[in-house]
Amino acid sequence: MTANLLDYDLEGLAAFCERLGEKRFRATQLFRWIHQKGASQFDEMSDLAKSLREKLKTSAAIKAPPILAQHISSDGTIKWLFDVGGGDAVEAVFIPEEDRGTLCVSSQAGCAVNCRFCSTGHQGFSRNLTVGEIISQLWFAEHFLRKHLKTSERVISNVVMMGMGEPLQNYTALVPALRVMLDDHAYGLSRRRVTVSTSGVVPMIDRLGQDCPVALAVSLHAPNDALRNDLVPLNRKYPIAELMQACRRYLAFAPRDFITFEYCMLNEVNDAPEQATELVKLIRQEGAGVAWCKFNLIPFNPFPASGLIRSSQDRVLAFARVLSDAGIVTTIRKTRGDDIDAACGQLAGDVKDRTDVQKRISRQRTVMLKPVSEITPRGRENASND
Ligand code: SF4
Fold first, then answer.
1. What is the per-residue pLDDT for 341?
2. Is there a single domain that holds both residue 37 and residue 141?
3. pLDDT at position 340, please?
4. pLDDT tens digits, residue range 161-180?
5. Are both 14 and 97 inside the same structural domain?
6. Catalytic site residue from 111, 118, 293, 344
7. Which phi and psi (to 5°) does residue 381 adopt?
8. CA angle, 117 as apex, 113 and 121 as ends, to 5°?
9. Which residues' Cβ are closer than 6 Å to ligand 1?
10. Are residues 41 and 121 in the same domain?
11. What is the per-residue pLDDT for 289?
């Protein structure tokens, strides 16, 4: 069977090389070709012995899922839709800013958590992505952007696992993918520039702290269990008190870090100043709160099935003021890519139609937008207030 080399972290690739009867150090060369140079053909790998290249041609491939569509927003945000087979598609979104380029990556096709405000959750769960399908999103995006921005320098400086899916419910593929992102022979991203966002899978937060303590973002969205049970059903299994304790333990593995609490602002559901005060009490609780944290308030992106409404800017500002006055660092996320449905919660909103896959795929193909030559560094000047 042909191995897809995008499925391996460096250790896995070394084991694969050994199986081919090659020295382990060959894996480092191969790994650099794949991830630092974006090679997809073994003939490009000029410093590998011809005999090894021939062996690789018969036993391995470097294969990302095909691109179904590419959408470019007027603010420079780019969304790619990857066909992962069986009628499933997942999205990756590149968000250019003045001082960084962030890629939002998916970990599952669909999601089983079913948060009320999330269009991905409403589409149900299909399957976990493989390591290769996760890392392909970065591999493709980074080398596509370098090519079209005509640069050999790194374009993507930050990765957030905030696309489709709950990453901690696909832990066995997530960790090797994170290792590839961090590896100096691949993307060399610093631990603090790779963020895993979770709805609160407590046991896996603990494991991540031990295995690969990258930056952690927690989708909180409510100050108490009664409301959070409704908005994030996983809360019934891992209530807020347990989640807070897991955050405290995580910080022990990631000293000098902080937890980012994400809070989707839902009109007259979770956005009252009294609820902000309740949050302050929760976070500041002696022996049970999370001292090192910041809040990111996220404007809700409405979709018909949710029955929810975006909070007004006044309500968001009043909510933020309560948190800030209590000394909690609070940011309000600027929406990006609205014209291409690339904002949080809209990922693949138009994709998951199990009843008519061919129609869906042909519809997606028709939305190929501007030619790639129009991706210019100009888009990177659009800073957000994140
Ligand atoms: S917000 Fe995240 S965890 Fe919740 S349903 Fe959406 S993708 Fe899943």
1. 64
2. no
3. 65
4. 999 999 999 999 999 999 99
5. no
6. 344
7. -80, -15
8. 35
9. 111, 113-115, 118, 120-121, 164-166, 199, 219
10. no
11. 83
For residue 330, pLDDT beyond 70: yes
Closest CA to 3 of 30, 38, 32, 43: 30
Same-domain status, 45 and 130: no
Residue 317 maps to a domain: yes
Residue 234 in contact with residue 199, Cβ under 8 Å? Answer: yes
Q: Give 120's pLDDT tier (boundaries 50, 70, 90).
A: confident
- Specify the DSSP element, H or E, that contains 135: helix 131-148
Task: Supply 132's token pair.
Answer: 């290769």
> 52 CB contacts (<8 Å, ≥6 apart)?
20, 22, 26
58 Cβ contact partners less than 8 Å away, ≥ 6 residues apart: none
DSSP 236: G
Of 91, 133, 142, 262, the catalytic one is: 91
Token output for 351: 């994709």
Give the distance (Å) from ligand 1 centre to CA of residue 117: 9
Cα gap 43→106, rounded to integer Å = 31
Q: Which atom of ligand 1 is nearest to the CA of 119?
A: 6
Spatial separation of the C-alpha atoms in residues 213 and 190, rounded to whole Å: 11
Q: What is the mean pLDDT of residues 110-139?
A: 94
Query: Is 377 a residue whose pLDDT tops 50?
Result: no
Whether residues 139 and 195 fall in one domain: yes
Task: Report the predicted TM-score, pTM, of the whole model to 2 decimal places.
Answer: 0.89
> 15-29, 278-292, 307-321, 340-354: lowest mean pLDDT where?
340-354
Q: Domain span at residue 36?
A: 3-61
Residue 153: both structure tokens together: 């320098």
Question: What's the domain count of the chain?
Answer: 2
Residue range 183-208, pLDDT digits in tens: 999 999 999 999 999 999 999 999 99
Residues 373 and 253 occupy one common structural domain: yes
Which two three-digit tokens encode residue 175?
A: 């960790």
Which residue puts its alpha carbon closest to atom 7 of ligand 1? Answer: 165
